[in-house]
User: Which sequence fits this backbone?
């Protein structure tokens, strides 16, 4: 079992920046990759970015060049630095981890609005 706890969401103006963090606990030695997904009202959950144990990253086209995912394997954390935020980035952001099974955090709200 892996437990994930996100932090760092909030309200930010368009063009602003925000950093999300996710701390993993439990059977963290089993984690192969971690990532961030988001779900806007009335829409399906979608990939934002993922990062493997080896540091390979993958980004949704909509966030490339604006978001950066990073990981601290020693601390079992994954972060998402978000810059040049747009209103369409408004969503609940979920951290996940693939460790034989897929685990999800509880989500953190990000609202981009003036």
Assistant:
């Amino acid at each position: 079992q892996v437990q994930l706890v996100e932090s760092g969401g909030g309200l930010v103006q368009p063009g602003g920046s925000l950093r999300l963090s996710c701390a993993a606990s439990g059977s963290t030695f089993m984690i192969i990759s971690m990532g961030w997904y988001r779900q806007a009202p009335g829409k399906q959950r979608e990939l934002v970015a993922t990062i493997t144990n080896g540091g390979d990253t993958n980004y949704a086209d909509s966030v490339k060049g604006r978001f950066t995912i990073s990981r601290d394997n020693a601390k079992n954390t994954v972060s998402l630095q978000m810059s040049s935020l747009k209103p369409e980035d408004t969503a609940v952001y979920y951290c996940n981890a693939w460790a034989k099974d897929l685990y999800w955090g509880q989500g953190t709200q990000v609202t981009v609005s003036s």
